[in-house]
Amino acid sequence: MGHATIKSYTRATGYAGGINGLISQNYTENSTLKVDYYQYDDLGSTSNLTTSSGNASTTYEYDAYGNSLTTNPDSNRYLFSTKEFDVRSGLYYFGARYYDPEIGRWLTQDPLGFGGKQLNLYVYVHNNPANMVDPDGEIAQFAIAVAGAAIGGAVEAAKYFQAYQSGRISGAQYAGLIGVGATTGVISSFGSGYLGGALFGGVGSALNNVAEQKIIKGNINHADVGLSFGTGAVIGLFGSAGTKLGRNIIKYPKLNELTVGGSPIINYGAAGGLFGSAVATIFSDSITFENSTNWAGKEKRN
Questions:
Q1: Same structural domain, 133 and 182
Q2: At residue 73, does pLDDT exceed 90?
Q3: Total number of domains constituting the chain
Q4: FRET pair for 101, CA 20 to 30 Å: which of 108, 151, 240, 281?
């Protein structure tokens, strides 16, 4: 990045932007204002920084417990689990406590005590860092929920980016839409089995549609909400079936074989629900807003 000075960070609500809501870092380089965008792996850790043109400027890799496998002399501090890394101490600050990746342990006990659902109050994510995350140092969460948040937030960010750039929606509306996408992404990942995939695919899509209408139009068309639910449910059902078919025939992905204490972490229903909600949400603006007379405060488009 050269001689650069970080000026500010752009964040979103919910889990959009990895685990820490981080979207971009804004800095000056040789007196020129520049922006680098954070890209994330499926556990919410920073994997790349990309320029405004989409080119990767920096790549990051870690082992399972967060030790860096690359040497990057840039000024980015947000790395494993999108948490701030202290170069001097070698520790990550998660909010509730500090984490040492070299030993794969917290330095202090879980502030929730045994309410954090771990018998060892120093252990990191049940010793299962390949499949679980801990957003703030208190309660480990399943990675599929974080992935759902990241996907949901990214879908909304991409859908409404041009509307935001052109001034058809405000910055507050844009941030709200990204937060809505992240939230419904988490909700849609709660499915289990075929019916669960269909149900939560539909619920995630419908809730997203309600929030989009409220934020952009100020009122809700219930027929559009029902259509979004049906679309998400159908796609969620097919997504669940496709995921299970892939597991049984080509043996990948083996989603239901990832377990903690003998219980599946994620399954084909969760994957299907997330897929159904995301795909239905991508098309919801054409369903809901194409013929609206008050889309982002503008006149009806012909």
A1: no
A2: no
A3: 2
A4: 151
SS3 for 257? helix
Domain that holds residue 214: 142-297
Tell me: the pLDDT tens digits for 268-296? Answer: 555 666 666 677 677 665 545 554 444 44
Q: Which of 49-53, 148-152, 153-157, 240-244 has the lowest mean pLDDT?
A: 240-244
Segment 236-251 shows an average pLDDT of 60
Query: What does DSSP say about strands 32-40 and 105-106: parallel, antiparallel, or unpaired?
Result: unpaired
Q: Reduce the secondary structure of 71-102 to three states and give it as a string.
A: CCCCCCCECHHHCEEECCCCEEECCCCEEECC
Same domain, 291 and 155: yes
The token pair at 296 is: 């982002």
Q: Which H/E stretch holds residue 49? A: strand 46-50
Instruction: Please state the rounded mean pLDDT for residues 31-39.
Output: 85
In a domain, 302, yes or no: no
Q: Which of 121, 139, 157 is the last residue of a domain?
A: 139
Q: Which residues pair with 36 in a beta bridge?
A: 25
Instruction: Return the residue matching tokens 């507050």.
Output: 172
Best CA proximity match to 177, nearest among 166, 191, 187, 163: 163
> Among 139, 155, 173, which residue terminates a domain?
139
CB atoms within 10 A of CB 54: 7
